[in-house]
């Protein structure tokens, strides 16, 4: 009872000195907001859209069939909207809904635990974004002339994965390994597959390669777990920092990111593409530097600074790999 009283007390506290910019991006340190459209945007976490958008770019590049024509550019933009604002927005809103208890501990000023948006409004947003994303997926299949609606089925599969990641009874995020790998696959493999299927053929070797790259996505997902240790532990969620301790988890994190990329570089070298392999290696070096400079020193204090510094090199590496597989 005392815990519940403390929790309700904390929920009433506004976010002091929060940033309006953070609020629009949907990241930690957001200001309190009463405008419903700004709150709706915050729930979709626009800061999480770029990796999905970039994944579509990589898939289109890997297809070898993308041309800088008005039609292909328009198709890619619609695919980016499907992957980013709609389906990632659906995923993030859904996750916030099922995380409302843990957010009441970690970030009580967020829209749902603070009561800034009602239950019906949140559920309506979830359905609108989901159906909008699936509708765009079906449109892309028709536009591309697919006999089999592969983009639509990828969207359905990704949406289902998002649901079981956040929602009981499965709630994959309760297990640090399975949950973070599912998140990594959602951010790397699925948009790549959608972009490649839209412009070309999705082949088994690409599926295997991108799933391997999703192990790096697992590492990226662990970065976000450090700021939630208190709430995860209180609610019994076995994130890797909770299960192994912060010191061990931070090495698991950087190991997953670095070893995956080194393995892909080795694959490219073995496939007779040494220049692409060298380019990928060159992009791994600054990531390791920033890991020691920021993340390994203090993963909680420097999580945002580390991601802003290191992740551009990781996503450029994805494009290098995509270009290598297109030739």
From TrEMBL:
Gene Ontology cellular-component terms listed: chloroplast membrane
Any Pfam family hit: UbiA
Any one GO molecular-function label of the UniProt entry: chlorophyll synthetase activity
Domain of life: Eukaryota
Catalytic activities: phytyl diphosphate + chlorophyllide a + H(+) = chlorophyll a + diphosphate
Primary subcellular site in the record, as a coarse category: plastid
Annotated compartments: Plastid, Chloroplast membrane
Regions that span the bilayer: 126-144, 150-165, 177-194, 206-223, 275-296
EC number: 2.5.1.62
GO terms under biological process: chlorophyll biosynthetic process
Membrane topology, record value: Multi-pass membrane protein
Key words of the record: Chlorophyll biosynthesis, Chloroplast, Membrane, Plastid, Transferase, Transit peptide, Transmembrane, Transmembrane helix
Similarity comment: family membership: Belongs to the UbiA prenyltransferase family. Chlorophyll synthase subfamily.
Protein's name in the database: Chlorophyll synthase, chloroplastic
